[in-house]
Write a structure and sequence with these properties.
The complex is a heterodimer.
Chain A: E1 11-16, H1 25-33, E2 53-58, E3 68-73, H2 83-87, E4 93-95, E5 102-104, H3 114-118, E6 125-126, E7 153-154, H4 160-172, H5 186-190, E8 196-200, H6 207-212, E9 217-218, E10 230-233, H7 237-241
Parallel strand pairs in A: 1-10
Antiparallel strand pairs in A: 1-8, 2-3, 4-5, 6-7, 9-10
Chain B: H1 7-23, H2 26-38, E1 52-58, E2 67-73, E3 76-82, H3 95-98, E4 114-116, E5 125-127, H4 130-148, E6 153-157, H5 163-175, E7 179-182, H6 188-196, E8 197-198, E9 204-206, E10 213-217, H7 225-230, E11 233-237, E12 250-252, H8 259-272, H9 284-295, H10 299-306, H11 310-323, E13 326-330, H12 341-353, E14 363-365, E15 381-383, E16 392-397, H13 408-412, E17 415-423, E18 437-438, E19 449-452, E20 461-465, H14 478-489, H15 499-513, E21 517-519, E22 527-528, H16 535-543, E23 547-549, E24 561-562, H17 568-576, E25 589-595, H18 608-616, E26 625-628, H19 630-635, E27 643-648, E28 651-659, E29 667-671, E30 705-711
Parallel strand pairs in B: 6-7, 6-16, 7-15, 10-11, 10-13, 11-12, 16-17, 17-18, 25-29, 26-28
Antiparallel strand pairs in B: 1-2, 2-3, 4-5, 4-18, 8-24, 9-14, 19-20, 20-23, 21-22, 21-23, 25-30, 26-29, 27-28, 27-30
Helix pairs in contact in B: 4-14, 5-14, 6-12, 8-10, 8-11, 8-12, 10-11, 12-17, 15-16
Classes of the chains: A alpha+beta, B alpha/beta.
Amino acid sequence: MSTAAASNSRYGMVIDLDRCTGCGACMVACAVENNVPVPPPEAGERRGITLLRVYRAENGRPFPEAETAHLPIGCQHCDEEPPCVTVCPQNAVEVDPETGIVGQIPARCLGCRYCMAACPYHARYFNWWDPAWPAGMERALNPDVAPRVRGVVEKCNFCHGRLQAAKAKAAAEGRSELKPDEYVPACVEACPAGAIRFGDLADKSSEVARLAREPRAFRLLARLGTEPKVVYLSDRDWVRQLGDSGGPALGESHG
Amino acid sequence: MTTTWTRRDALMVMGGSAVGLMLSPLPWKLLDDVAIRTQNHPWAVPAPRGRRTSRLTRCSLCPAGCALRVRSVNGRPFALAPVPGDLASRGTACALGLGAAQLAYHPDRLTVPVRRLGPAWMTARVPVAPTGAVHLVSGWLRETQRAAGPEAVAVLDGWPGRERSLRYRRFLASVGGGTYIAAPDEGAFLARFSGLLDPHPGPLGADLEHASAVLSFGTPPLLPMSAAERGLTLIHAGPRRPAQAALADQWLPIRPGTEATLALALAFLLLETPGSGMLANLVAAEREPLLALLARFTPEAAAAITGLAPAAIGQAAMRLRAAGPAVALAGIDAAAGPLAPGDEIAIALLGVALGSVGRVGGILPRAGLPGASEDLERVAIRDLPAVPDGSIHLLLLDGADPGLALPWSLVATKLAPGARVVSFAPYLSGMATRADLIVPAPAPLEGLAEIPGSPVLAQAALGVAAPLLSPPPGCREPGDFLAAVAAATGLPEIEAAPVESRLRRRVEAIHRAGRGTVIRAGGGEASELSALSSSADLWDLLLAGGRWSDAPDPPPRLHSALRLPPGSLALLAAAAGGGAGQRPARPREVLLVPIGIRGAVGTGSLPPALAKLCRESDLWPAAGDAFVHPDTASALRLRDGREAVLVTTAGSGRARVRIDRGAMPGVAFVAIGPGAAEFGATPGAREESLLRLCVPAAAGSWRVAPATLREV
């Protein structure tokens, strides 16, 4: 299934790994924007919801040549045959033909987790617990994003609430098109190093489209042919090899 | 023809219908509906509904004071985001600031005063009425004045230089001369530097707005965003590359405790340069012995001590020389604190050798905030190491958290037996857990707060964070509480005016001075302060997220020379010889170096979203992790992920071994925060930070300690 043919836009991200310092601002902004709760202590390291997760990878060299790269990984918004769409028995994963965004619809999700097994990027998370916040904080959640309940899968949707808000604002102003900087996900806005860029990959004149064509651009697991709309940049060979998971360095990653 | 229905036919129809039904969408639709229905449990938390607003403000968590856009629902902030148009922060904010809207709801939050039951080791606490808390502290104050005199009353200020700090000093003045202690901060090195110059130039600051290169020993200072955009060269010297130095142009991985050696070696190379003319800057009385000391630190000799290659030292010297105005700064590590005095003297000497004193882009006199230091000479500012041991009977702990660690053992040695400790922290965490009484102060976003600029910078600055939430009724501004204590004790009245009116007076003083520029958070160019017709305009601008920056007159040429106090050469020689660092003394020993990220090692608590990040990823070192090189691990028979016992002369504790190829061999980098795994746990159940294993020296430095690490 090709979603590109029918779409007007193909929103995507370009992440410069040589700029990312691993400060975590994107992860915090993402959790705040999307009303992601802190899981109970028994959740451990792997069962919480991290719609965007920054992995740490090393070049495998000893001190003092050891180098670290930080790799933010969320849903890659595959453009060709997103595996999660194919396997979902509930049609709970849909590709928006207008934007190219692979959306997760929690209200339809049965929690079978086929999509989690199918996703080659491990970018999907299951809600093992009902969401809970410290006392009083439930009144200070993002009103544009409904909290998800126990038993459904979720993932990055490029801050869909922000897209809807931007569309509503444009409509109120009598516009049908969004301005280029009118809609950006929270992680893009939060990155203090300016490492994450966002825009329309279908617009050849956009900054992201230009960056995605650079020689230092690569995609994760490009050999699978899923054509992710998240593109990474690095001048370092060992970092670019991370995209192919066969490289030794990805095995060094923590997180 | 008649059709007869047999029982068999009926059963077949029923069976066929059942199978057919299964093949139809109906059961799946029912299943789907059930799924949807079960997702709308009445106990599921709905997103809040109501009026949405947005406004600009400044982050009050650290001196960077980044501009933030606050989105609120029904008047409650739910998300903070950086402001791209802001000229000071240039659209940046840290992870801590972005989660600050959640801090008011932290499980550790205190909303009423609480008093500890029983001795110091007990964790049980009971609520106290606000008036009861006033009378309690008033009683302790009278007792202290009677038994040990007014100087036995002390305030430890976590973030000196604020309006709240002035009120502490006024309170101590009304007590009759109490002890005001400033917690170590980034400005400590420049204060020492100023003390070494003759004639004494007063407060100093680094002109990072115009510097071309910065050599940072320890964590780099908060660089102005304009500096990064100008392509400032950043060289970082330290045993580990902190996150703040991730984008440094050069990293000099020196052994722990060898900062002075590197500084002297670089000074040697710079002074050796023909025509550098810097020799004239060395004071005549100490010149010859100092030069003799410097001559010992050739790059080769320094390389043997620091572990660097001689070429790396030479390359750094060349970069500093070629870059233009350069500054050498002794940074304060969030976890490992300030450098030792000997190291700071060596770095000051390097600063003189760089010719940075009194030069644009170098070290300049720093004008204080107008209106910030009225009639306070009676209560001088003291550093913690300068306070006599066992001299404090009543200690008031400020609740501000500048995000830097301070070992309790360093504070505890200053306390007399049976001393009382009162904390003004909003949370029951960090140092507040040591207090006999906690009077909670408003949490971030709950009170009007000023944000003085970084004490490292030559240009003073001021921002204001507007109150966005109402504090719980049991929370109180520390100054207001102390005014009530003064009244209850019969002390001379200290000003009881609300924070806003006192801050307005400061803003009026700035407006009267007429210096500097102002920026608006929403964007636009900086404009002269004099363009604002009244102080009310300046106040409104600051409340809307604006910022004032001083722009001092062109710097006077400082004809200062280095005057080393008696004993400095010995300190310098001892520090440059490697001090406590270099290699472990015994084969099975390691050097313990505490590590942590600013904001996550102090007395405050992490926003829930950040605690989650720390728990679920290892982007930030987690409290209790000990990072060691594979060779060190192999020599000590340590395995990754296993628990080990860490022993120093200060005690022992459990750590989790993390094998890290990037760690310096022979060193255990021990994370002292954040303790994210303990988020939501009761304070009594928490592990105490491994910071207690660090051994503070008499001079107040705890950067490195010999230790043994043995797997359990």
